[in-house]
Amino acid sequence: MNRIVVCSSCKGDLQPDLEALRRSLDEAGIKFDVVQTECMGACEQPISVAIQGQGRATCLFAGLTFPDDIADIVATARTYLAADRGWIEDARSCGRLRFCLRARIPAL
Questions:
Q1: What residues make up the domain containing 14?
Q2: Contact assessment for residue 64 and residue 73, using Cβ atoms and an 8 Å cutoff
Q3: What is the CATH number of the domain that holds 93?
């Protein structure tokens, strides 16, 4: 199981369009659950998004905008799946998200 977790606590016009993200992932043929959760602690740079997978590293990104970064989230999800245990070594394919990485947590 792989999932993309999006912060639900961001204020104002920053609210992410989860349906647009789900559609983009489906159109790309990439299987991820997309869920929201309360604050992930990156409030100084909303919107935060985490990519997780069973037995894979977790990557936390902050400072994302919707819908502008949806294509880069999809590209990063594809790169994440191709990376050994989710550990992305070369993030050039992730577009702008390569500059938004805040944490990379190894798998258990």
A1: 2-105
A2: yes
A3: 3.40.30
